[in-house]
Amino acid sequence: MRRYCLIAGCFGLLLVCDCGAARNRTELAMKPAPQYALGVVFHDANHNGVRDPGEAGLGRVRVSNGCRIVRTDAQGRYRLPIDDDTILFVIKPSGWMTLVNDDNLPRFYYVHKPGGSDDLKHPGVAPTGPLPDSVDFALVRHPELGQFGAVFLGDPQPYAQKEIDYLAHDVVEELIGTDAMFGVTLGDIVGDDLSLLDSINRTIGLIGVPWYSVLGNHDLNQDSPDDPRSDETFERVFGPAYYSFDYGRVHFLVLDDVIWTGATDGTEASYIGGLDPEQLRFIRNDLALVPANRLVVLMMHIPLLTPEGSEPLFRPADREALFGILEKHPHTLSLSAHWHMQQHCFFGRADGWNGPEPHHHLICATACGSWWKGAPDEAGIPHTTMRDGAPNGYSIITFDGHRYSIVFKAARRPADHQMTIFAPEEVAAGNTAQAEVFVNVFAGSQRSRVEMRLGRQGPWIAMRRIEAEDPYYAAMKEAEQSPRPPAGRALPDAENCPHLWQVPLPADAPRGTHLIHVRTTDMFGQTYTAHRVIRIR
Question: Phi first, then psi: what are they for 213, rounded to 5°?
Fold first, then answer.
């Protein structure tokens, strides 16, 4: 998209602009005159999406072209520069809601592509024709409490309708009736076959709450020669690949952090994590209008963390630029998926973060777990345990002003299923100190406290956090190599688990059948317990 530098638009609107003043008259004169979109943000009293007589315009509502942001005037009017590949969108303010379609996808945008998308395997946007005289955005009143919950779903990633059916029975059905105010899929909505988008949207839409979407690397038009044209199908279905909205006293930013390299000069097409300059400008302009006391929540697909010893997956310069913008806000949280593992990360000065407190980044568990692999259960659904030994599932986050708390929910498991305990079935008395107990706390972090005791009267013993393969997962992989392996597709190789704890049994453990008790308290003060039977002979 071309860059425009307009300080004041019509109706006296202030246009947020970071282009700088270092342009001389000759340079500006060489640029073609920009085209402008005009429109109104209005109170849609009858919820029909059309501005009818008597429906008032709404002032001071933010509208964007993907880079610039303006506030509407007292009559709800705005003016923004556009080109022939622009998506205009309203930034939903607190206390209001955009309309949703039959699948509960928010309709907060207008796509302007007069020539439509390029000819790709999966269809993009059809030609939109001339720009309307007025591009209007409807908002309806929507009271929003200070405390509310939202559901965050990582990587459903179905490669066929059968796997959408798995998702329906494993995740969607138990979310029907949720008291969450909205949900978000954190990318990899499907697994490369973009023709499945309609089906999965109809399925997730049954949950019954507005559902936002993040672009993942498996949601791209992979026959696109470059990044700008790799999200054409996503735009047709969901609208802009990055945008923002307010809910209650929280500001949410959806980011597109997947950069498609295309396939040129005989190189293999691939992707890398990062943010292009125009998106960074949008983030800067967007956050400039967010009060400092608001919690800012970033939602992306590729994590900001690069595993030690790996090639940089998220471009370091882009992360540095993002941190430079974000660290001006004292209350922040970012969410991603992609890894098919779960991990809490806390970025500090050693990572280039200079905010007053470490930045909390959660790599969420994936809905598809290990790509719908593993032995099927009695319902025919693979157990699909992730490579860190945690089950597939999703996160429920409760927001209260700038505070928040996170609960992991394992798919089709009780809410208190938060860990597995791995220990021998039987240990010889006098040899118990050589027997290790391992506990995988699925949503644990370095800020968690994990303790174990043997029996009801034994002392609580602090467990030590380690990074190693989960032995429970290793046992499943070993069973796959046995002469009679379980049914189902083989699980992926194990990865070191970042939420694994270890402690030996007490050396003076008496003979008998005992309960191992484990309790854990997380960074939010939430405590969970679990038990396992062990025999000491």
Answer: -135, 140
